[in-house]
């Protein structure tokens, strides 16, 4: 098996920074916006909410690597507030990064993947869209919308050797978890049937399973320690 060219969006975030250390057998392309992750791999910068910037970034990657085999959308922000007091500008910002940013990158990489008749598109969603918490309307709505985007992209590209799936994450020992006050974190830990937060390597192993499984597409895989089951 040849090594894959993997584009990791959000490589400077809490989860992305740790994921960036795990794809040691592949060519890793690390996207960041403001903070270079300074990890092994080729780094590219872009505001993913700006389609022109994303298109330019993808062109640069293709000029250097010729193809993008795997896209991992791991970028995301959370701004909390009750809806009746939420700043419309802040709400829009969350949606622009989490949803529109993911669309922009998927849109930019698809022509190359379709030409190569191969691609794996993996977007990180969240248990919060399945089990909302007060104050998370923007984050929850953006992560829920990613599911509809994923399933549509999956059926549009199923005949082209491209799969598109979501991983709905629970609470992991990184990133946005540490925006939550310590007392609330302990309450969340107690509500998880496994009574622990997830490890980033568990996300990595799930991503590898998706990459390796050609017949898996249009799915939401919940990796959350049993916090939400339907």
Could you walk me through the main structural features you see in this protein, from its secondary elements to its overall organization?
The chain is α/β, with parallel strands linked by helices and 230 residues long. The protein has one domain (5-223): Rossmann fold, CATH 3.40.50.720. Helix content is 41%, strand content 17%. It has helices at 14-19, 51-65, 88-116, 137-157, 182-191, 200-212; strands at residues 5-9, 27-32, 42-45, 70-73, 119-126, 162-169, 220-223. Strands 3-2-1-4-5-6-7 form a seven-stranded parallel sheet, sandwiched between helices. β5, α4 (137-157) and β6 form a beta-alpha-beta unit. α2 runs parallel beside α3 (88-116). It is globular and about 50 Å long. The termini are far apart.
Could you provide a short overview of the structure?
The chain is of the alpha/beta class and 230 residues long.
What is the CATH third-level topology name? Rossmann fold
Main sheet: strand order: 3-2-1-4-5-6-7
Number of helices: 6
Termini separation: 37 Å
Oligomer designation: single chain
Low-confidence stretches: none
- Report the CATH superfamily: NAD(P)-binding Rossmann-like Domain
Global structural class: alpha/beta
